[in-house]
Amino acid sequence: MTIIVAHPSHAKIDWWIEQLTPLLPGWTLRSIHDPGAPEDVTYAVVWKPATGTFLPFPNLKAIVSLGAGIDHVLADTQLPRQVPIIRTVGTDLTQRMREYVALHVLRHHREMPAISAHQREKRWQQLIVPPATRRTVGIMGLGNLGGAAATTLAALGFETLGWSRTPRELAGVTTYAGQAGFDDFLGRCEILVCLLPLTEATTGLLNAELFAKLPEGASLINAGRGPHLVEQDLLAALASGRLNHATLDVFNVEPLPEAHPFWTHPNVTVTPHIASLIDAPTGSRIVAANIARFEETGHVEDLADAARGY
Fold first, then answer.
1. What is the pTM of this model?
2. Which end of the chain is more exposed for a tag (fewer CB within 10 A), N or C?
């Protein structure tokens, strides 16, 4: 019984194999670059697999995504659609997203980008902001990560809104659902956080039309996926003052190209896809437990729905 690991970084393949091996006794862990006998491979643990990665393996039981999203798996145009996809979600990943969202919402709320600019200019200027109870923050996407982020912001005192495709209920959070509630939700968001999965419907959703529905001078945090954002529309919204600042953790091209204007834009904060970054020591425990459970029962809680895209 063989499990292959596929990742754009050879070093990270070795890291994952090293961490997973003691947690999966009786299994052989191999790199996608040296998979051994194809018929022995029954599971694939992957991040951004190349097109056609899974075609050589006729006995594949499941694909394990090294992350909560599966868009990077579905991008494979030769993906065997009958093979289940398991998401990697756990308390450590959720905690990291809660930290990231709380950090950057607070940065926007307390005007820290402007204060940092004042420091560089050696300018002493006290900016007065309302308390969190009078600041409205909206979260788009109320899955495991989004729901945890929303309840964290509510606990900090923010007036917290949440929007999702289907109705959800969260303590301390005013929720909206579907297209019917979308405009009302956007119209109240002084700080908008995108944690949506990437699907055909959400690609390009962060665009000029959406920005026009936000309050004047709103801020944006995108920790979902790069293709959610129409980059030129964001630059135009910042130039016009429609948006005040944007914190971006995900991009259409990663790593972000050196010449990209986001790097030096005074109203953009760039973070290198670290909001809920999975590491092998943490993630291997989740991956190993999911593989063992799926092997025994044929089901895990974090089984993705490929038709929905998440």
1. 0.94
2. N
